[in-house]
């Protein structure tokens, strides 16, 4: 799978100045539409917002370094198994992430950019859930062709 890193990077540059507001919007979006996920998270989301925002920035910064991406995502995926995150939860997270990015990206968002983020999220989810399942199957960020 080719990752369209230029589209991801350009749109993220438009979103980045909004900082932690992006993570706050994401959690509002996710938990309003999927209230059954609320109990997985701690009562106060402040720290969680900071961590998610830091993780997103790290992911985008490592797009051209698939081996870094792979090990970051495998660690994240294994930790998520202990948080109670299941493979079936990932599509809701992906939908809220895309809606959040679209909300903040303004003119930098178009259908090609949406497809690029969706493809990236596919690799992210498959790598995380593959590591959580303790297998090498599923996604492979280092096997993805970086365009
Ligand atoms: C793109 C996929 C995802 C990313 C980048 C992501 C990112 C993060 C990060 C950075 C943390 C902080 C703790 C750590 O680094 O281990 C975290 C915690 C957490 N995530 Fe995710 N996550 C993703 C998907 C999911 C999914 C699908 C769920 C399931 C609903 C989920 C639920 C949680 C929970 C419950 C915590 C712990 C919160 C707490 O300690 O209260 N995440 N996530």
TrEMBL record:
GO terms for molecular function: FAD binding; heme binding; metal ion binding; nitric oxide dioxygenase NAD(P)H activity; oxygen binding; oxygen carrier activity. Belongs to the globin family. Gene3D superfamilies: Globins (1.10.490.10). The keyword Cell inner membrane does not apply. Keywords: Heme, Iron, Metal-binding, Oxygen transport, Transport. This is Flavohemoprotein. Coiled coil: none annotated. It comes from Streptomyces naganishii JCM 4654. Residues 1-133 form the Globin domain. It comes from the Bacteria. It holds the Pfam family Globin. GO terms for biological process: cellular response to nitrosative stress; nitric oxide catabolic process.
């Amino acid at each position: 799978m080719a990752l369209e890193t230029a589209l991801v990077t350009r749109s993220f540059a438009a979103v980045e100045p909004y900082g932690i507001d992006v993570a706050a919007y994401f959690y509002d979006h996710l938990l309003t539409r999927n209230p059954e996920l609320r109990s997985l998270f701690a009562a106060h989301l402040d720290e969680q917002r900071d961590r998610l925002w830091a993780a997103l920035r790290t992911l985008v910064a490592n797009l051209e370094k698939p081996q870094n991406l792979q090990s970051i995502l495998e660690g994240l995926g294994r930790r998520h198994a202990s948080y109670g995150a299941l493979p079936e939860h990932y599509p809701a997270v992906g939908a809220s992430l895309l809606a959040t990015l679209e909300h903040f990206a303004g003119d930098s968002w178009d259908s090609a950019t949406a497809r690029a983020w969706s493809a990236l999220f596919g690799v992210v989810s498959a790598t995380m859930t593959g590591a959580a399942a303790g297998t090498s199957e599923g996604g492979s960020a280092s096997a993805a062709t970086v365009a």
